[in-house]
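Summary: Need help interpreting a holo structure output

Steps to reproduce:
1. Submit the protein chain below together with the SMILES for zinc ion.
2. Request a joint structure prediction with the ligand placed.
3. Inspect the structure token block that comes back.

Expected: a single structure record containing both the chain and the bound molecule.
Actual: see attached output.

Input attached:
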Amino acid sequence: MSILITGVLHENRIQDILIKGNHIVSIGNLAHVQADTCIDGTGKAILPSFMNGHTHAAMTLLRGFADDMPLGVWLKDHIWPIEAKMTEEDVYWGAKFACLEMIRTGTTFFADMYWHFPGTARAVQEMGIRAGLSAALFDFGDKERARQAKDQVEKLYEKYASLSERIIFTLGPHAIYTVSKDSLAWVAEYAEDKDLLIHLHVSETSTEVENCLKEHGMRPVEYLDSVGLLSPRLMACHCVWLSDHEMDLLARNHVQVIHNPASNLKLASGTFRYQPLADRGLNIGLGTDGCASNNNLDMFEEMKLAALLAKSASGDATVLPAVDAFALATKNMAAMYGLECGEIREGMLADCMLVNLNHPQLTPGHHLLSNVVYSANGDCVDTVICNGRVLMEDGVVPGEEEITAGFRACVDRLTGA
Ligand SMILES: CSC[C@H]1O[C@@H](n2cnc3c(O)ncnc32)[C@H](O)[C@@H]1O
Ligand SMILES: [Zn+2]
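--- attached output ---
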């Protein structure tokens, strides 16, 4: 199958783009080329689609369910009790609805950590999107729970590690306060053995640091180092409360960091220090976190918040310029997952979006990436392609009504409405 996008803005020039199979094969004047599908790119710009580095997709079910409280209370008193009632079917519809929102707002990859892994995997398969799905692991220090959790991870690995070219299987130990030292060490070994990435919440709140100091006599990143978890395999989410020594440890071990600006702000977790981490050469990506702490999956908003926070935290308006904020959501994430996407170039995977240049928030067009980062939102996205397949054209995602109905039915059942 081939797709020809004609007359689209790419790197300040009007060009044609040819996609064959799942790759971008040619960029230039392609007036002579025939393709199975033709998309008129007039008045549009092509950009790499976004990659959401940390979310819990099915938490769309809990959007607006518990707001305006700190992480500990939010998780223990509100989120975990209702999550305990969720079925695989709920997670499937929650994740499908999340995929719909992501596609509509220009995202074609998400890194997920959630319960009922098969539900999310099924949604990803059906929606045509790409994902890094982590097998969640919790044991709360209980030996029997740890045994069961590891068993479950191994079973999921057997079934999903090579199931689909669009799913990357990863490990998801939740956090140092919910996973025992033995299980964290097991995760490090298993990841090495099976060549897997690890997705973990790290140093999200000051309480996490205080408790770690009390229990282990060291700070969270030092503790992770002692357990053997620091390596380029680790995608450390949040990373809000880091000492200089912890930043050095992350850099020395080439750990990858995911910034979650909206969630950190909403839960008042603290301020991510972008510049000191960037100065150390760390690869930094961007994520929304789940819909119960954001409360949407729009990566445009996330880029803007990341840029504004970095400037404010450093007192320097030159920090995290638009082009770098865009990289957080695209090519930095692609590097993290070893995917050849995140840029529009010949030979790259055909994961891309067309934005509507006539949208007021992209007008006037002095500088496209400035507009994309500081002005636009998901509403500016017109067309989305993932792995060479059109998932949305002219703002239409096929099957949207059915997905919304299935999703609403789950929310009603879950909340007894
Ligand atoms: C094992 S499934 C993931 C688990 O994480 C919870 N969660 C969502 N957002 C956060 C956050 O910001 N910090 C810690 N844990 C979070 C989610 O509700 C699931 O229970
Ligand atoms: Zn999270």
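--- end attachment ---

Reviewer comment: The first strand starts at residue 2 and ends at 10. The CA atoms of residues 24 and 81 lie 46 Å apart.
Status: needs-info
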